[in-house]
Amino acid sequence: MNNSPTNTARLLGAGLRALLVLTLVTGVVHPLAVTGFAQALFDDKANGSEIKDHTGRVVGSSLIGQSYNLPLKKGQETPEADLKWFQGRPQNGLGTNSVNTQYKLILSGATNRSADNEEFVQWVKDAKAAVVKDNSVTGYTVEPSDVPADAVTSSGSGLDPDISPAYADLQVHRVADRNGLPVEQVRKLVDEHTEGRTLGFIGEPRVNVLELNIALRELAATS
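Above: the chain's sequence. Below: its structure in token form.
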């Protein structure tokens, strides 16, 4: 093996040239090419699937759920749901930290409780009772058997932005009552914002809660 200074310098030079070329290709050219491709063909998805209201202001992402709660009252630790809005899935898996809580977060997660866990079972019972109570209005009574699974369980990430059409339909009478709107108008909104299975066979039909609530606010403002 030739360990002469000249050969060592030649090898170092070759290594440095390879490092510079790879840095340029993988650290500059490739990221710029991928970013340009994404911006050109998938602008919405590349920028976080942002959702804007009628004024053009970004109010969230179609990929991340939000909470619709009333402001905390003095001495209150858990906020109450603002029942004039459609509500998303429970958020039991999220937990909190000192900086971010609920959907204002850098953490997500499931409950990590088994189906027969006593605490989890109690969560489901309490959630079902709340759904029945909150959504039963004059002339419309929700039965426990009417409550779909996604109304009482959180998703694996705790960030699910969608609910089932069944859960959205269950909330129609309450939302209409709270906003002084005709039930049929609110039901029409749900129908208009119901998406089918991806490619016709992947997943389940779903309703994006944020998009639905934006449409609801616009309807209430013009009625």
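The helical segments are 5-41, 43-46, 118-135, 165-179, 183-192, 209-222.
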